Fold this protein.
Amino acid sequence: MQPRTNQSILADSPFSLTSDAAYSQWREDKLRYKKPAVSDVLVQIHDPYQLSDEEKVAIISHCENFNMAIYQLRNSAIQDKSLVHALGKQLAMEALDANIRSDEDSVSSLEVREQAGNKYIPYTNKALSWHTDGYYNALDKQIFGIIMHCVRPAAEGGVNSLLNPENVYMTLRDENPAYIEALMHPEVMTIPDNIEAGKVIREAQTGPVFMIKAPVGEEAGRLHMRFSARKRNIIWRDTEDTRAAVEMLNELMADENNVLKIGLRAGQGIVCNNVLHNRSGFTDSENQKRLMYRARYYDAVA
Ligand SMILES: [Fe+2]
């Protein structure tokens, strides 16, 4: 199946550059939900296998408003990986993306490990620069939702920063609509082939930064972002507006006033619609080694 293009979904969308009225309305609604504090998006969960209606509604509405929720299990001793699958199912997140380093159940155990072949930074203790997950995926296999559960934090560091792409879109569009046009261009960002031992293990992927997720049922098409701040291995379209837009994007992410920072503790986790995020470097100790379970879905939180 061909992915629907931005153009075919854009009619009457607030994300169309020709629909100023729809954009103004959306913008006004969204301004109430600029940058959340952790307390704005925090949900206490009694039993991850059986969310109460209140818990579920809270997670869904935080994701509706901010594209992210942070949960805290009342009992942080519950640590079985099945809790991630269970949480996802209850939030209509079921289509899991399997990737090169994920475990057999398609959920990844992010920890420092020895890696043969290409070294993937998530499995080291190094900092991870700003990105959305799966930016290198095919356009019809984009990641719309993520659950990341903290089994054990590192002895030090490993802090995540989160930024809602809707805020970024708004700031860029208000500054100059041409930036949005540049970032919605179908050839604005190319990720080259991923080659391991001389073999292409993932083909080059070209696409927009801002995409509109095809509407589901009554829901309007959501804004989706495909992005990596890596300097190497990203080929940007060679235009002045693209350069200026990417530069402003980098400035927005670098400004701590815009981002939510969270050092997840054991039993805490993030549920989000694949917002922009990064991770600071960390240090494990003998008995405190960072372990996160991460699930990536083709579904947004609903
Ligand atoms: Fe990520």
In short: The two ends are 23 Å apart (CA to CA). The pocket of fe (ii) ion is lined by residues 131, 133, 277 (CB under 6 Å). The chain has a mean pLDDT of 93.
